[in-house]
UniProtKB/TrEMBL annotation:
Protein family (similarity comment): Belongs to the short-chain fatty acyl-CoA assimilation regulator (ScfR) family.
PROSITE patterns to which the protein is assigned, alphabetical: HTH_CROC1 (PS50943)
Limits of the HTH cro/C1-type domain: 12-66
GO MF assignments: DNA binding; DNA-binding transcription factor activity
InterPro entries according to UniProt: Cro/C1-type_HTH, HTH_RamB, IrrE_HExxH, Lambda_DNA-bd_dom_sf, ScfR_C, TransReg_Diox_bact_type
CDD domains noted in UniProt: HTH_XRE
Name by which UniProt lists this protein: ImmA/IrrE family metallo-endopeptidase
A Gene Ontology term for the protein's cellular component: cytosol
Entry annotated with the keyword DNA-binding: yes
UniProt source species: Aurantiacibacter rhizosphaerae
Keywords of the record: DNA-binding, Transcription, Transcription regulation
Gene3D superfamilies to which the protein is assigned, alphabetical: lambda repressor-like DNA-binding domains
Length: 466
């Protein structure tokens, strides 16, 4: 079998620069011509096995050091980006993608950044059109919408944070380990404190007394998350600053919201490291309660984390997450899937995210169908925030974790809903043109209402079908 031809141009150039050598210096060391070094760095000549051995012995390096650790991930990211429909008419061979990632890593990264920026602009444009159609004119920038757009454009997946958190998780898996780490690395005393000191808060860094207080009323999952979040705040600025530099924010509020989201992302990744969590999710068929027990975290924390499993080449089921209160107000959206419901939906009362308030704490699975015929699986349950002591106010919310029905066979919930008729729902009543909907709160835009002088149709708004 013929030996594989190796083209290591960018990596060879990187090694030479790290050693502080010119092409002439390296040529002298390796007993070859400077022009041959230049040809290898431009990938116009392969690096032979003999040359690899000579590099290793001359500079006392491991041949593996010349391997591009990021090449496989770059290939996977490029493959993911090039699946965008706007590239559908371009025939791009897998080997071409490999060549670009390996031989031209700078160009590959430039393409990926442009594609991410394009996604952000598309989301921002859609948001602007919604505002204009709503008659609001040039509305002031919305920090929450900008933060959501930043996360959605990246499918709520940040491999740099996952890698950092996974490395830290080897020694920081328990609350006591986090407490010891904070004391050793930052000289801070982490302690559990009552509401009298925290005034209803969950965590307080008392800078002057060198203490970090965490509310004792939190359960173990909440305590671990707050400790992990404190570590993220103190140690992840460099990684998070680099991610924030990719965004374009209209004000400081938007940037603050994204920073807080990325800090929380790292904290969750510490409690649920990417590779271990993704494997467990597959093994347990995405059973949220089973994952909650395995990682000693809350139902909502697992639901959050499941939206982040979109690392190129290591993807899990793509989910989006929605959280609403009894009044239907949406307090959180996390999108790892790019579905329409993730960005604009949540108001349809036929969706089980609203029905689970009738059975608090019980998981419900539902097959839903949008007007365009697309079907989704919705896993919903209530979660409670606040409380913890007598008289303390709490709030009950509902969360839904939703994915395309094409993934149904991978889910533990399949046996409960397989073969069931889907529940027809809409993104919003004004945008939904389903006739005869008993739950409708407003007629759809552009449809003429049918006079009801001689007949009562039994639905709130009866309109023509065409």
């Amino acid at each position: 079998m013929a030996a594989k031809t190796l083209y290591l141009g960018p990596r060879l150039k990187k090694l030479r620069r790290e050693l502080g050598l010119t092409q002439a210096n390296m040529a002298t060391d390796l007993d070859i011509s400077a022009s041959y070094i230049a040809l290898m760095e431009r990938n116009q000549r392969p690096v032979t096995a003999e040359m690899l051995l000579k590099l290793a012995t001359t500079y006392r390096i491991n041949v593996a050091d010349l391997a591009d650790e990021d090449a496989d991930e770059t290939v996977a990211r490029l493959q993911s980006a090039l699946r965008d429909p706007m590239f559908s008419d371009i025939a791009i061979e897998p080997l071409d993608i490999d060549d670009i990632a390996t031989s031209y890593p700078g160009m590959a990264e430039a393409l990926l950044r442009l594609h991410t920026a394009f996604g952000e602009e598309q989301l921002a444009l859609a948001e602007k059109r919604e505002v204009q159609q709503g008659g609001a004119g040039d509305a002031a920038p919305d920090p929450v919408a900008e933060a959501r757009a930043f996360l959605a454009a990246r499918r709520n997946c940040f491999p740099a944070l996952d890698d950092s958190a996974s490395a830290a998780a080897r020694t920081l898996s328990s609350f006591d380990q986090m407490k010891a780490h904070i004391a050793a690395e930052h000289g801070l005393d982490l302690r559990l404190s009552d509401d009298g000191l925290l005034r209803g808060g969950l965590r307080w860094h008392d800078y002057h007394r060198r203490r970090v207080h965490i509310a004792e009323r939190l359960d173990q999952a909440g305590r671990r998350f707050q400790a992990a979040l404190q570590i993220a705040i103190m140690e992840q600025d460099v990684t998070i600053d680099a991610l924030l530099a990719e965004g374009r924010f209209s004000g400081e509020d938007s940037e603050r919201l994204v920073r807080r989201a990325l800090q929380s992302y790292w904290a969750a990744a510490l409690l649920m490291p990417y590779h271990a969590f993704r494997k467990a999710a597959e093994d347990l068929h995405y059973d949220v309660e089973a994952l909650t027990a395995r990682f000693s975290v809350s139902f909502e924390q697992v639901a959050h984390r499941l939206t982040t499993l979109q690392r190129p080449g290591e993807e899990g089921v793509p989910f989006f997450f929605l959280r609403v209160d009894r009044a239907g107000n949406v307090s959180k959206r996390l999108d790892g899937a790019g579905f329409p419901l993730a960005r604009h939906g949540g108001a349809c009362p036929l969706w089980n995210i609203h029905e689970v308030f009738a059975s608090p704490g019980k998981v419900d699975a539902q097959l839903i169908e949008l007007p365009d015929g697309e079907r989704y699986v919705s896993i919903a349950r209530t979660v409670r925030a606040g409380g913890g002591r007598f008289g303390e106010r709490s709030i009950l919310r509902a969360v839904a974790l939703t994915c395309s029905a094409q993934h149904l066979d991978r889910l533990a919930y399949a046996r409960a809903i397989k073969g069931a008729e889907p529940t027809p729902i809409g993104v919003a009543c004004r945008l939904c043109h389903r006739p005869r909907c008993i739950a409708r709160s407003a007629p759809p835009m552009g449809r003429e209402l049918i006079p009801s002088r001689f007949r009562d149709s039994g639905v709130p708004f009866d309109f023509s079908a065409d």
